[in-house]
Amino acid sequence: MTSHAGGARPNGAASTARKGGFSARSGWLLFAGFLMIFGGLMMVFSGISALARDDVFIPTPHYAYELDLTGWGWIHLILGVVIFFAGFAVIKGALWARVVGLALAGLSMVASFMWLPYTPFWALVLLAVDGLIVWALCTAPGLLED
Question: Cα separations (Å) of 129 from 11, 107, 122?
C-alpha cells in the first residue's frame, strides 16, 4: 500500500472516480432524481386517496379552483407517475429528463397550490419537495454544457 504525497490519487484513480458517477455534478442530479421519485410517489398516493374515498377530504364550497376530487385525483395520479419515472431518467443522466423534470415540477407546484384547501399539510410538503427539485435540477452543473 503506497501513500501519495498530499493524499493525491494517481491520474487513473481520479479519472475513474469521476467516471464512476459520484462527482459534484451527479450528486445534485442524484439528489434531484431521488426527490422526483419521492415527490412522484407522494403525488401518486395523494391521487389514489382522492380517487378511492372522496369523503376523506374536507369539502371546500366556493373554492376558486373548484374541481371534483376525482378530477384532482386523476391529475395527481398522472403527474405523480410521470414525475416518478422521469426521476429515474434524471438519475441515469438523461438531459431530456432534466428539462422534463423542471416542467413537471413546476406543474406539480401549481397542482399542489390548488390542492391546499383539501390537504394543507400534504400540499405544503409537496410544494417544498417540488421547490427542492427545481433548485437541484437548476443548480446541477452541465445543463448548458452537455
Answer: 38, 13, 11
User: Whole domain around residue 106: which residue ranges?
Assistant: 23-58+65-139
**Is residue 16 domain-resident?**
no
Residues 116-143: what's their mean pLDDT?
A: 85
Burial 37-55 (b: 16+ CB within 10 A, else e): bbbbebbbebbebbbeeee
Distance between CA atoms of residues 146 and 135, nearest Å? 19
Q: Is residue 141 scored above 90 in pLDDT?
A: no
In Å, what is the CA distance from 44 to each residue of 2, 32, 80, 86, 119?
Answer: 52, 18, 5, 14, 14
The CA angle 116-83-118, to the nearest 5 degrees, is: 15
Give 36-87 pLDDT, tens digit per residue. Answer: 999 999 889 988 988 887 666 666 666 666 667 788 889 889 999 999 999 9
Residue 99 CA: distances (Å) to CA of 46, 53, 96, 144: 24, 34, 5, 11
Q: How many domains does the chain have?
A: 1
Q: Tell me if 86 is assigned to some domain.
A: yes
On whether residue 42 sits in a domain, the answer given is yes
Which pLDDT band holds residue 127 (cuts at 50, 70, 90)?
very high
